[in-house]
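Quick one, C-alpha cells below:
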C-alpha cells in the first residue's frame, strides 16, 4: 500500500489491541516492521514465515469447502520460544 504509515499506536490502524488478531490489511502491518508477530486470516491458507523482522502466521481456514486439500486448522504460538504449532481440526 503506497503511502500507508505504520501508526505509533496500533489502535489508530485497527481499533484493536496490539495482541489482537487482525483481518484484512495484514501486509501493511507486516511491512511496517514494528511488530514481532502478525497473526491474520482472510486467505484461508496456512502461513508461517518471517518477513523482515516480523513473523507472519495464518492458521488457515476453519470453514473449508469440499474441494479444499487443507483441513480446517488452528495455530498455537508460544511467545516465549517462538514455536508455532499447527493443528488439524478434522
Amino acid at each position: 500500500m503506497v503511502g500507508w504509515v505504520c501508526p505509533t499506536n496500533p489502535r489508530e490502524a485497527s481499533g484493536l489491541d496490539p495482541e489482537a488478531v487482525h483481518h484484512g490489511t495484514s501486509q501493511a502491518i507486516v511491512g511496517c516492521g514494528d511488530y514481532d508477530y502478525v497473526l491474520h486470516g482472510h486467505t484461508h491458507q496456512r502461513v508461517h514465515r518471517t518477513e523482515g523482522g516480523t513473523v507472519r502466521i495464518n492458521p488457515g481456514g476453519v470453514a473449508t469447502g469440499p474441494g479444499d486439500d487443507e483441513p480446517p486448522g488452528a495455530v498455537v504460538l508460544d511467545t516465549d520460544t517462538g514455536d508455532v504449532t499447527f493443528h488439524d481440526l478434522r
